[in-house]
Amino acid sequence: MTTVEVPHGSRSVVLRVAQVIAETTDASSLVFEVPEQAREKFNYQPGQFLTLRIPSDRTGSVARCYSLASSPFTDDLPKVTVKRTKDGYGSNWLCDNIKPGDELEVLPPSGVFTPKDLDDELLLCAGGSGITPVMSILKSALDRGTGRIVLFYANRDPESVIFATELRELAEKNPQRLVVLHWLETVQGLPTVAALAELFRPYTSYAAFMCGPKPFMDGVHDALGQLGVPRNRTHAEIFNSLAGDPFADSAPLEISAEEAADAATVEVELDGEVHNLSWPRKQTLVDIMLDKGLDVPYSCQEGECGSCACTVLEGKVEMENAEILDPEDIEAGYILGCQARPVTDRLRIQF
Question: What residue stretches are annotated with the FAD-binding FR-type domain (predicted)?
Fold first, then answer.
């Protein structure tokens, strides 16, 4: 049995696995029990993810992000869904080893792949295991929203369709609001940009959310672009394997008098509150916020997960690694707090 004696950092919580659900031959869902004292910390938004600490004989542990497929409105317990990937250590270890009653160390929910308005009309696009955060959004919007929803779901074959029964039941229960469009590679081949554009043409006014393999996401992006869907109406979720250890607590910053004298100033809006901070040029925004005890959203601190995405309202920053942001995102002012360092003397930033 997998047990965790003590969390490896102040942010993480040890969760017990209440249930393991075999979704397909290569995908399983893990349902977690959340201790009473951690309930508030594990409140989540539709489409967010959890970061799991997975034991490793070689490195001690690896950190992996898995989307919540559950809805905070319709499910009593949080559930992540894990699909095996070829040569993927984390996904295969979880699918091979985790049983009900096991414990895992988990970081609180994170991520910004979530609708601002559940009443909006939604075009949800999923490829393979990309259905997991999309399913969370779908169930939440059906329960709490009023808009129409179209789900486009691409898979290799019928046996690969995760949540097939649940999707069928949701469509039957909500015929006026939900349309589910399946695309099977074994039947229709890979979806082309032209085919996607034709399918999406009736839904260009909808807010689009997409998650799946990179070629799938590129095709959806291109199709929506051809149809003239505004960039601020399209939202993509991207996961990369985390190389560092997001479970370790950050060490206090050591800032010299010279660095402090040359620091920029930043006004940060977080959860509706405004904080005025000194921002030394060599430190990232996440670093200085953590050093001041602020509950800044972050996971990897390596520019790989997007949890710390925020918007520059005034001023300019430089970023070492911002590959997960599209050029259009950067043009619109989006930055990664864990990669951002100040260029101008004064900045305003909103989370």
Answer: 10-116
List, as one string, the DSSP characters of 276-338.
EEEE-TTS-HHHHHHHTT-----S-SSSSS-TTEEEEEES-EEES--TTS-HHHHHTTEEETT
209 and 141 fall within a common domain: yes
Q: How does DSSP classify residue 121?
A: -
Q: What is the pTM of this model?
A: 0.85
Instruction: Give the pLDDT score at 301.
Output: 83
Mean model confidence pLDDT for the chain: 93
| Domain C-terminal end among 46, 80, 109 | 109
CA–CA dist 348, 351 (Å, integer): 10
CATH number assigned to the domain comprising residue 334 = 3.10.20.30
Please give the Cα distance from 80 to 132 (Å, whole number).
Answer: 8
**pLDDT band (50, 70, 90) for residue 245:** confident
Query: Is the predicted pLDDT of residue 53 greater than 90, yes or no?
Result: yes
* CA torsion through residues 259, 261, 264, 269, sign: positive
Task: Measure the N-to-C terminal CA separation of the chain; round to a whole number of Å.
Answer: 40
Closest alpha carbon to 349 in 252, 257, 279, 256:
279
Number of domain units in the chain? 3
State which residues form the domain around 180: 122-237
Could you please report the per-residue DSSP string of 5-62?
A: SS-SSSS-EEEEEEEEEEEETTEEEEEEE--GGGTTTT---TT-EEEEEEEETTTEEE
Provide the token pair at 41: 């910390």
For residue 240, the SS3 value is: coil
8-state DSSP, 128: G
